[in-house]
Design a protein that fits this description.
Elements (H helix, E strand, L loop, with lengths): L5 E7 L2 E6 L3 E14 L8 H8 L8 E14 L10 H12 L5 E2 H4 L10 H15 L4 E7 L5 E5 L2
Helix pairs in contact: 2-4
Length: 156
């Protein structure tokens, strides 16, 4: 008989709860946002940027329907049976994403004025915004840019 190590319950398409056999609890929320960007490094030549980023270096930029998956973890409060207030969890993520929603990341946000807005840099920039609002309970942050491009950071 196999040993059960974890159980994940998908209560909705955008929310899951997971419990591991050591009683660690995780909550995950998926929240989409739309933004445009241009993959470009200012100190590279046009040829270098085109070679590195191809069509994603289009001068006008291009847009994505990004999806974030934010996972927090820790011990469940024995009295309330909860890890974190769900409303506050969603609000922290939405508040962190709001300045980027329907914006051109390179032209309209401070985070990417001097840094290429690659998926790696977007998820790196988003991590402290969310983590600070969630009392450093963030354990994983995943950013899906397309069906083929997904970027993940984990707390180690």
């Amino acid at each position: 008989m196999p040993v059960l190590h974890r159980v994940r319950l998908h209560e909705r398409d955008d929310f899951f709860a997971e419990v591991w056999n050591d009683e660690t609890v995780f909550l995950g929320v998926r929240i989409p946002f739309n933004a445009a960007h241009r993959l470009h490094v200012a100190c590279f030549s046009d040829a270098e940027n085109t070679k590195l980023y191809g069509k994603c270096n289009n001068q006008l930029g291009h847009g994505h329907g990004y999806v974030t998956e934010t996972t927090i973890g820790g011990e469940c409060d024995k009295r309330s049976g909860t890890l974190y207030d769900f409303g506050a969890f969603r609000k922290a993520i939405e508040e962190s994403l709001k300045p980027w929603q329907d914006r051109h990341l390179d032209l309209e946000t401070a985070e990417f004025r001097g840094t290429p807005s690659t998926g790696e840099n977007i998820v790196r920039s988003l991590w402290p915004k969310i983590d600070n609002l969630l009392d450093q309970k963030l354990v994983r942050l995943r950013l899906s840019e397309t069906a083929n491009n997904r970027f993940t950071l984990r707390r180690t």
